[in-house]
């Protein structure tokens, strides 16, 4: 069986790209001329909300229509288990499906590639051949054992560490041109396709091609600026205004490189006559902080530069316009793709109230719905979850220890967080530290904490968040200590020594 209307789908994730650094969203540097042109054909949403501030849970939500507490693919348990994915549903409906990325989290190891007929991970240290085919079944066997799963976690973390090492001197070349090449080959060989790509250039470390450095960061040596967010976040490294300018210049250069590669892909679709019949989704999974709130990277918080993400969608049934009113949750994109392809979904079923193509979009009938991916009655609220930051915390502790710094345990580093966000405001609940609340409409930088005030809008958002936590049956722990438990007990001395060398354990 084929898709009901034969609509092709190209789904592009701009990994770690913050909305306010896109010229398509009004940024004053020419970072995205391709997306500016795309915006003339697409709906451009100002209030898109990511369900989490990092890759794994966001992609799991995109692929399942579930919130992080429902699919449970988090730092504590980084595997998508027991959920039918969008790719599995579309593949069963006759679509050719492919996933191309250089993100180490999007692999058979985490099960995020389930349902994709073709997938390639261009990750420099742990390539697709290691994480797919028969070896993927070995990974799954390791995942099924609590002890071996911990070892598997460490192997992926070590892969990331080696990638960081090779890229630290500019040696990690971009994989995006290869991703785009493979995407074009795949769609040319397909009659009906669902192609998902994740483009990683804007993720730390920033080492853009030289031509883009000359345009956006002339004279900047990427090997000389701080490329490790944990060093800054733990207090081991200072960054002054001039260095932040250099870092942001490199970041902008990476974004422009992505944009130019998208131009290659979009032009190819147009020249081969496939553009008009293809739904195109372009969104970021999360953003990045460059010193705001005293933080660098995309961990330990859920402020807007991380979770209010760019989102642009082209489809004949979606009006091409800028929308600064509608709240779009990235979870909704799962339903929008199902709707566009005429597939009901073998996992979470298509919900018209979550499809951008539907006249009922974000109309939740005035009462809380039940079941997987359920939303409360208010369509103008999006929800964010940040589980225990075990992996990030381990790296942070290593950097702090090396610098002789003792981290405060009652801090955001050890906190779990959740937020309810509307176009006007945001309420953030935290463990370990006080809650925060902001009027986004008058304070978009989230600088004036109004938690505990009698602001009715913020009081209502606090209640919405509480209802959401109950609805998704979120488990809010008191502790987030990043301990490794029996995993370290089972490791031999050589493995422990290697982890010590890399800063993961003391």
UniProtKB/TrEMBL annotation:
What ranges does the record list as Acidic residues composition bias? 475-492
Give the Sulfatase N-terminal domain ranges.
8-343
Domain of life according to the entry: Archaea
A Pfam family:
Sulfatase
* Annotated spans, Disordered: 470-493
Q: Which InterPro entries match?
A: Alkaline_phosphatase_core_sf, GAG_Ulvan_Degrading_Sulfatases, Sulfatase_N
Q: What Gene3D superfamilies has UniProt attached to this entry? A: Alkaline Phosphatase, subunit A
Q: What is this protein called?
A: Sulfatase
